Amino acid sequence: MGLHIVACCLSLIFVADFYAYLKLIMFDTTRLYGAIMMVAPFAAASALFVFARFSFGYFVGFYLYTMVLGYLWLAEFSLFRYDHLLCAISAFSCASAFLAPALFLTSPIKRRLVLSEPALDRLLSFILVLGTAVVITGATYNFRFVGLAEMYSARSELDLPAFMRYAIGITPNALLPFAFACFVTRRNHRRAAAALLLMLLCYPIALTKLTFLAPFWLLLLTLLSRFNPRIAVVLSLFLPLSTGLALSALYKSGAISYQHFIGWFGSINFRMIAFPSAAIDVYNDFFSRHDYTYFCQISFLKPFVQCPYSDPLSIVMAKNYQLGNLNASLFATEGIASVGPLLAPFAVLACGFVVALGNRLSAGLPPSFVLLSGGVFPQLLLNVPLTTTLLTNGAALLFLLWYVTPRTMFEHGAGSSLELESTNNY
Description:
Radius of gyration: 21 Å
Distance between the termini: 19 Å
Helix content: 55-70%
Structural class: mainly alpha
């Protein structure tokens, strides 16, 4: 944990250097002491991850903890004019409010509906068939293999119908990772590979970076799941982050070219880790001068809440900051944007209870199975509101699948050794 915290701060220094032209992530050596003092109390709070047991909330909580850590560092150097101390205290309070239920509410819920193992087999086959149908149907609307550099301009031309947007959100983020985890458990390598291939084929339709990276991400989590699950969670961020630091050092020394360095560093250190922290800075600045949404950005609440914005928040931010469509995490949307920094901890606490429900519905499942089947959602929650993640991206459906999954499938068979080994680490 200590090494990870140091790596995060070093990474933000490098990001500030390579992306100084954005004037979004800054660094000033004369204010280094203030940044350290801002981060130090929150770094001490990482002890929560030492004592908490693994759960879905642990997985999500560690990623959001890293995001808030980054914001507390960046706030010291922010060029935006708002009350940085108030918002830093609010961010600390939000993180504490979220982690309390997300880490420690893990008791199981009595299950009244459980699939039999033959029924689960049929469900897994149906998921593969559905994934194939989604890819084929989506290809009739859009199917373009473009590089990550051209992805954003190509995505601006997308015009998928509503049913397709839901399908392309739920299938590669919830259904196929769940099927992949089941196939890995049973050592059914061919069907596991088929699930990953279908996830990858969703990229030319959705044109999002996460859709492209998700299959490779699940392979990394599969390798890391051989460790203690809590260590696997920390390594899942620490290893990619440290690789970016190593590449930046090699580039600075002239050992590798800019092209060999920026692809990884830009995708991982900047876009995946630093940018969600910077989004909190942007949202704090915007809503220090504009009306709060009071949750009107949630589609099913719009008819009941008067909304000061006609566009989605991502579009509102794009128009005001010229940083592209700026989606943000629950800390920025359900928190800052909805009720402001003073009341944000209460809104984020409610989000923590929702994630804790995921803990309770997955209780009894092996840690490595939860790690793989829920592997996409910690990354999603760095950039997407919780309400969107639950509905549009299928987290609520995954919670239901965890609830009905027969625990007996992990008690026998050749494929269960990995899960039993992870459980026995406790």
